Amino acid sequence: STVRATREATLDELVMSASKLIENAIKNGTIALEIKSGYGLNTETEIKMLEAIEILKRKYPIYIKSTFLGAHDFPPEYKNNRDEYVDLLCEEMLPKVAEKNLAEYCDAFVDKGYYTLEQGEKIFMKAKQLGMKIRMHCDELADVNAAKLAAELGAISADHLLFVNDESLVLMQQKGTVATLLPGTSFFIRMPYANARKIIEMGVITALATDCNPGSSFTENMQMILWLAAINLKMTAEEALTAATLNSAFSLQLSDKIGSIEPGKDASFLILNINSYKELFYHFGHNHVEKVYINGKAY
Predict the structure, then answer these.
(1) Counting beta carbons within 10 angstroms of the beta carbon of residue 285, is it exposed (0 to 12), middle (13 to 18) or buried (19 or more)?
(2) What residues are paired with 206 via a beta bridge?
(3) For the residues of 118-164, what is the DSSP string, one character each?
(4) Which of 284, 11, 124, 127 lies closest to 138, judged by CA?
């Protein structure tokens, strides 16, 4: 349904739809985000989505990073010939995205029923050859060793990780691959939660994100994600806040600019109408943000 709607949408319609989500995200305290393509699953629409992201970068004062996710799923026309679609990704889509300089990162859904390790590696090697960096949907539906592949390829982040194994976590820790946990998705589609306690205790850099998307986590509210992280991921308030600020900034390669209040960084911060940061995890379902400052200016 979403692929069909995205293919039919105009560039202006995509920008308008995304703008509403971005404005809500900012009101709820987000000042940097990643936007992925992945709902076109053909060259024309994937390029259109990435062009919409470029317009959004110019429209808003926040940091926006762009990721090509043509390997989100297989389109209906290639359901019975998946390798042919992988070839299309490598031979047509990725070169065009690189030629137009439309994405900093390349992502793929390497998991049970989606892209195999071999298909994912082929896509990522081509992306790296074209100068893109790697992010990866990993081990959300089953343990297929996707996170291990992410670490081996030097991925910036491995996301989801509901069924990640210990060997993969050890390698992620050694390689500095960020574990991006997405408790909104587990909540929304009634899946198990990632084992955040083990991931943190094994020394893996841990970030949090909304995974805002129409299929499995339709929220742009990071305060809700903080609450889920404390309640269902069993993270401490301090761990969750660090994961949603400094570690998330590190995952977007922006920790030299944002993510903490330090001399030399952007003056981007929030004023919250609470007595203690712990209220973020106690009084849930309410927007505690009173003011958002982006690079010293109230938004």
Answers:
(1) exposed
(2) 179
(3) HHHHHHHHHHHHTT-EEEEEESSSS--SHHHHHHHTT-SEEEE-TT-
(4) 124
Instruction: Average the pLDDT over 246-273 and give the result.
Output: 98
CA angle 203, 218, 41 (to 5 degrees): 90
Task: Provide the terminal-to-terminal Cα distance of the chain, rounded to the nearest Å.
Answer: 35
Amino acid in the structure at residue 42? N
Q: How far apart are CA 80 and CA 85, in angstroms?
A: 10
Cβ–Cβ under 8 Å, residues 216 and 2 = no
Beta strands in the chain (DSSP E): 32-36, 63-71, 105-110, 133-138, 157-160, 178-181, 206-208, 269-272, 289-294, 297-298
Residue with tokens 């009101």: 27
Q: What is the three-class DSSP state of 270?
A: strand
Instruction: For residues 36 and 18, give the distance between their C-alpha atoms in angstroms, rounded to a whole number.
Output: 11
Q: Which residue has the tokens 């992306």?
A: 127
For 2, phi then psi, to 5°, come to -70, -40
Place 84 in a pLDDT band, splitting at 50, 70 and 90. very high
pLDDT, tens digit (0-9, with 9 covering 90-100), for 150-170: 999 999 999 999 999 999 999
Each residue's pLDDT tens digit, 91-109: 999 999 999 999 999 999 9
Tens of pLDDT, residues 66-80: 999 999 999 999 999
Radius of gyration of the chain (CA): 18
Tokens representing 161? 């990780």
Q: How many CB atoms lie within 10 A of CB 298?
A: 8
Q: pLDDT digit string (tens) for 171-187?
A: 999 999 999 999 999 99
Rounded distance between C-alpha atoms, residue 226 and residue 88, angstroms: 39
Q: What is the mean pLDDT of residues 205-212?
A: 98
Name the pLDDT band for 30 (thresholds 50, 70, 90).
very high
